[in-house]
Design brief:
The chain has about 400 residues and is of the alpha/beta class. The chain folds into 2 domains: about 1-205 and about 380-395, 3-Layer(aba) Sandwich (Rossmann fold); about 210-380, 3-Layer(aba) Sandwich (Rossmann fold), CATH 3.40.50.2000. It is built from 16 helices and 13 strands. The strands form 2 sheets. It has a 7-stranded parallel beta sheet with strand order 3-2-1-4-5-6-7, with helices on both faces. Strands 10-9-8-11-12-13 form a 6-stranded parallel beta sheet, sandwiched between helices. The chain is globular.
Length: about 400
Amino acid sequence: MKILWVNTNFLHPTTKGGQIRSLEMLRWLHQWHEIHYVAIQNPAHPEGPRLASEYSSRNYPFPYAVPLKSSPAFYAELARGLFSSTPVAVSRFDPPGMGNFLRDLIRKEGFDRAVVDHLAPTAYFPDLGHSVLFQHNVETMIWRRNVEHAATFARKLYFQVQAKRMFEYERRVSLASGHIVAVSQVDADAMRSLFGVTRVTPIGTGVNLAYFAPPPDPAPQADIVFVGSMDWLANIDGVKYFVQEILPLIRREQPACRFAVVGRTPPREILDFAAADPNILVTGTVPDIRPYLWGAKISIVPLRIGGGTRLKIYESMAAGTAVVSTSIGAEGLDVQHPENIRLADTPAGLAQQCVELLGNPEERRRVASAACNLVSSKFSWEIIAREFEAILENAPPFPH
């Protein structure tokens, strides 16, 4: 098949779960099919288009500077979001002229299938009815959870506005799309319930087993590690929740417990934790997250907000690290408490799970080993890519 794949960004540097999922699947699909990849080119990362040959036959960089979240332009976008019917999470990735560019490309190339990767490109994709919408999250659920856990009244009000607009927008484009790929059965069921869609198919979440396999004697890093992009609201909330409400309970039993936060662009409120506590490390961007997973006793996923599935859980499992998570953190994943993961949804419960594993190396190794066996037997990216390929083969053909 000749496949048009449209995304908001190129896949290098690979710093987000959605990028990892798309990259790993496309590497396999590229071996079997002709992939034409269109995305916004970030001027700060010229390596994006240069490395796109790893997963595409041709790539088409579209120049546009998406405002950084720390910039005045971003706050201007938030202000405009008070008056626009389009949610900010979509409108900020809408470059002028992209729709016309895609129409010309489609007319010239004659594609067999089209994939719209994430929700934002639906704003300018010219033929949703003949496309496969690849939804890594149910965005409406994320925004509703943002409302629930908003730190201030002003934030709650803003999130309520955005949640309402996101629901209306996501329902409209979901119903307009030819087919939807969800990343879990939980997400697929939510889309059917929330939006009334019927053409939705879930796929699994994979992991690069060879890449994450641990070395014989990894260097110790921290007792507990959190890995994730620290410019994402759900991760910021999760780390604050852990440090403020869970870590103090753990330290009643393990006073010297060391905690590492590994992920790009941590905001000042997260950096302040490390400044105030010598046993908290906040790394910012690192060239390789694996040593932090290999060198930790526990990988924590204390998320209260979010959707989709957390690749970090399967990556931690493949790295041989025991995982403690909230139910939302592990939502949609094929895991079993207490066999191969520990789950809890209160500060006391999460602290108890961590204390038990920190104090019992034998049980910690048992959980980690069961988890590694789970991902090794079921969740290679080649298997997941074949699932996606089957969906594409049965999806609406793109008109020539």
